[in-house]
Amino acid sequence: MRRLLLLRHAKSTVTDEVRDHDRRLAPRGRAAAVRMGAYLRDEDLLPDLVLCSSAWRTCETTALLDLPVDTELEVLHELYLTTPDTVLDEIRRVEDAVETLLVVGHNPTTHELALDLVGAVSGFGTGDADALELLAAKYPTGALTVLDVHGSWADLGPARATLERFVTPRMLG
User: Fold this and answer.
1) How far, in Å, are 31, 32, 38, 140 from residue 14 at the CA level?
2) DSSP string of 6-18?
3) Where are the domains of the chain?
4) What pLDDT tens digit does each residue of the chain (173 aa) get?
5) What does each C-alpha distance from 83 to 42, 87, 90, 126, 154 come to in angstroms?
6) Which fold, 2-172?
7) Which helix (H) or strand (E) holds 29?
């Protein structure tokens, strides 16, 4: 079984002085990213590969996770301001040797993709009922969706994953 981790970047600054692509994390966002990194380590959810949007806030979030130095990282401009289908296409290109994949991206794309992969768009959804309810409500900055994927990355599609858990920085204290 493969595991897909979908992480929305942590809370960023909002300013007219900087292009959207170059926005930095807010202090609250930096703290949340560090907490989420500790959670990934504590829960043995460390990825083999990270696909990260090229935006500054996603790269900064990824850096603050403090993943092992041998974790493979691909920064992709294709993941910035894109659609769930484009993100899914990037996931489908991943080699099957990768057991745990982390995608660090943006909303609404991350939220829509998570809902689609567990089949919640159709009103049902597979996985933990409490997590499904939280996921359906909103996808705050720094939130993490943990999905179990049965089959290859190339075969991943709508309603082809099971929601294992949904975690927000606020849940981590």
Assistant:
1) 17, 17, 26, 15
2) EEEPPPB---SSS
3) 2-172
4) 999 999 999 999 987 778 889 999 999 999 999 999 999 999 999 999 999 999 999 999 999 999 999 999 999 999 999 999 999 999 999 999 999 999 999 999 999 999 999 997 655 567 878 898 899 999 999 999 999 998 999 999 999 999 999 999 999 98
5) 31, 7, 11, 22, 18
6) Rossmann fold (3.40.50)
7) helix 27-42
